[in-house]
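Name: citrate synthase (unknown stereospecificity)
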Amino acid sequence: MSQANRDNPTSALCRHNAEAIWYRDQNLVDDLLGKQPFVATACRHILGHELAPGQLALVEAILIVLMEHGMTPSAISARLIYMSSPESLQAGVAAGLLGVGSAFIGTMEECARMLAVIADAGQPDAADTAARTLAQRLVSEKRTCPGFGHHLHKPDDPRAIALLALAERHGVAGRHTAALRRLAAALDEARGRHLTINATGAVAAILGDIGVPVGAMRGFALLSRTAGLVAHLLEEQETPSGRFIWNLVDRAIPFSAQEEGA
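Structure predicted for citrate synthase (unknown stereospecificity):
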């Protein structure tokens, strides 16, 4: 970035005057309202260009897949914070979104980086070698692989199967999806047993093939999970569970004095 840009930053996202508002170069009222769906508009706003119909169908599917998974840490956090501040729906949602990280929901970022190494290796033989090298290193270091494994969905994650099939059907599957399948096969070989591709692994590959930058991928999880968290908080209004969760933890984790010298 030049010194001039640092001293005088600009934004290409939105402008307005007394008569109109523009999202990038599109007039909000004349070009978008009643004419463009939310997902297409959001993708264009985030990425700066329009996506093809098949790509939009996959983004739509990804947003649905990542929206909900029951009483996960993000949903529990949202309910507990909302119990503390029932006047603030946004506080509960924000608390839940803070849980979209490298351990849950947001794991597609690191997975995408691994897939890029394999996809960028070039010819199939070189890509296979890159996948085996990566899998062997993960196993030897006893590290988990982002985008793989699930404590509930075994032997396979049905969400990943459906997303990858949809990507093939819409002609979206490309180098990153191929890299995901190579890494899956290499991990099974290195571990000596099957390890499922989970939902975020499929998401990483598909968003990579759509051309979404790695640094933006978690943003799609945030968009998706926001809807799920709002649903959790509306349910919390009608059938509160926050106090029950609090009492459950209080009973299950009793006080234990630490011994001296321990």
